[in-house]
Amino acid sequence: MDFLEYDFDNAYVQDEQDTGNRPGVYIEFKESWLNPGNMEQRVYDILDEEGWNIITKPATETEFYKNGRVNIGNTNGKVILQTFSFDALRRAYDVFRGKLPMCYLLWVSDPPYATDIAYDTPTGYAAFIKWAQDYGATIIGPAISGEPNNYPEMNNPWQAYMIRKSGMLNHPYSFDSYAQISKYMGMWNYGNATEFDDLLRLHIPATAYSKVGDQDLPVYMDGSFTNRSEMSLRYMIENGFRCNANLPNPFHPGKTFDNSQAPHEVPDAVETLERLGY
Questions:
Q1: What is the rounded distance in angstroms from the CA atom of residue 5 to the CA atom of residue 14?
Q2: What is the pTM assigned to this prediction?
Q3: Are 146 and 116 in contact, with CB atoms under 8 Å apart?
């Protein structure tokens, strides 16, 4: 057997600690040579069997939040794919044809490995964006700098601008500090005007849970990968990005998102682990 299979029949039991939040999943395809030759087709088929494949069962419910709870997992549009790999992206495109959200993750090194950006210049960056689009990606995931990981900076303002201009979403990785999330959500230029403001600057109205008033900020991401979910959620709530009925849609000027039903309280991470016995 080249693929470990699990039988989840009767695997779930009532959990007294269940909060009612139902998140989605972000599945990563590793390098192709690490997996069976039909890995992408197997994932496609399993998603189809579970009713999670929006290609064969289009999403009918799109409310990400409902009654103060995360609702994504209750929809059948709960899956995003991701990969660093050239070949895995190409193979996924052969199966999914760009009809399931796909994030192409970026990395740069010197000398570059097989799937790294060789030239971190506007031309090289644009070439990777175009290549990712040609193979069905709708999201770019650039590395960000800063402690504790000290990754190479791949989400400078000009790079975030190129991603936005391409029409793709921007999901940088990985956020581990308050300084990082505040930097990429508006504080990079401390409110000063920049040459990229025509696409990146947003008006963020205050909410009942904000700790600041209305803000006009250049925002260098549309989503994120974080190792500190409690910190990231708290920042977004306190700065009007969450629990907001009038969050601007950067891709459709004049239109808004409504995530006012998102939970507005963030449990303490340590207390939660202690309560669960971890």
A1: 24
A2: 0.91
A3: no
